[in-house]
């Protein structure tokens, strides 16, 4: 008799868990359906709080660098690639639009920009190099206990505005963006999103400055990247430049990075910042120099990255999160 009682209890528990999953899924679908329009005010299903969906996040990076907090699950976005096109589109493409992530850190629901280009400043991508030049996220994207979304609105510039074409329109629940590399298809294209969920992570905000008396090697171009110990097959591109034109603010030597925020495992993690350089007029192989930082709960870490005779001062600001 006890065996049948246990089986009945197990079935009842399974039914309850299934009902809870279906209920949460229904709420998430409803939230996504009602919240994607950037021109309307929306109401949070969980808090009854109204927010403007076209507003940018007011939470900057390093928000908790000088105080305590909790480690949380973050979404690391490595790259977005236009995998294929259809519907009469032809390479190359002049792409403009917005890619954003929305989470509920501090119940904000505002746009955390990952990619943004206006029609007058579109990015030209080719079949040989079909990656978007990401500039974000501007802070870490928090995904635990969160019905947030990842939103893509991309267009292809035509000869006139009336000739512009849709490239991709996607609204994805952040909780579903857990696979390392995943493909998403819309009417005119398929995008490849390379991302990874980082458990119990800390936000790392990277800044670089030429050391006093240092200058970038003449004729060298390069790529600065960041990677973490648990992922050895993907990097975050911080800066890529050609023709020895290192983007430096002349007055104080600060290097203008394209991206600077990376999520790192809080425990047993490592952040590696690398510089790969080569001379366009030289047949020698590219050289790579690295510096490794151990995550902290707060505060800053400093180090020097040597690139030939050039010394680059690197500062990493560590930040946890609140609930």
UniProtKB/TrEMBL annotation:
InterPro entries: DUF6598 (IPR046533). It comes from the Eukaryota. Residues 76-316 form the DUF6598 domain. PANTHER family: EXPRESSED PROTEIN, OS07G0486400 PROTEIN. This is DUF6598 domain-containing protein. It comes from Aegilops tauschii subsp. strangulata (Goatgrass). The lineage of its organism: Eukaryota, Viridiplantae, Streptophyta, Embryophyta, Tracheophyta.
């Amino acid at each position: 008799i006890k065996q049948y009682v246990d089986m009945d209890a197990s079935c009842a528990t399974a039914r309850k868990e299934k009902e809870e999953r279906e209920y949460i899924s229904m709420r998430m679908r409803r939230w996504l359906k009602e919240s994607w329009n950037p021109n309307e005010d929306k109401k949070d299903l969980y808090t009854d709080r109204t927010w403007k969906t076209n507003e940018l996040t007011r939470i900057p990076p390093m928000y908790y660098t000088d105080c305590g907090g909790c480690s949380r699950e973050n979404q690391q976005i490595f790259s977005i690639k236009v995998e294929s096109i259809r519907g009469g589109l032809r390479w190359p493409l002049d792409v403009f639009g917005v890619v954003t992530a929305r989470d509920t850190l501090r119940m904000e629901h505002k746009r955390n920009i990952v990619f943004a280009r206006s029609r007058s400043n579109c990015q030209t991508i080719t079949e040989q190099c079909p990656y978007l030049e990401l500039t974000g996220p501007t802070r870490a994207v928090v995904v635990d206990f969160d019905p947030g979304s990842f939103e893509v609105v991309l267009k292809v510039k035509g000869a006139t505005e009336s000739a512009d074409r849709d490239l991709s329109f996607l609204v994805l629940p952040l909780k579903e963006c857990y696979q390392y590399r995943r493909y998403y298809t819309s009417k005119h294209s398929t995008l490849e999103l390379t991302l990874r969920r980082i458990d119990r992570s800390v936000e790392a905000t990277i800044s670089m400055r030429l050391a006093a008396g240092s200058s970038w090697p003449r004729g060298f171009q390069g790529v600065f990247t960041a990677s973490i110990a648990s992922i050895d097959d993907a990097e975050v591109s911080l800066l890529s430049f050609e023709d020895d034109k290192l983007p430096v603010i002349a007055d104080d030597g600060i290097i203008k990075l394209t991206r600077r925020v990376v999520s790192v495992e809080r425990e047993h993690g490592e952040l590696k910042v690398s510089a790969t350089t080569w001379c366009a007029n030289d047949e020698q192989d590219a050289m790579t120099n690295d510096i490794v930082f151990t995550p902290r709960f707060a505060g800053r870490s400093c180090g020097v990255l040597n690139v030939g005779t050039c010394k680059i001062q690197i500062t990493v600001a560590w930040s946890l999160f609140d609930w």
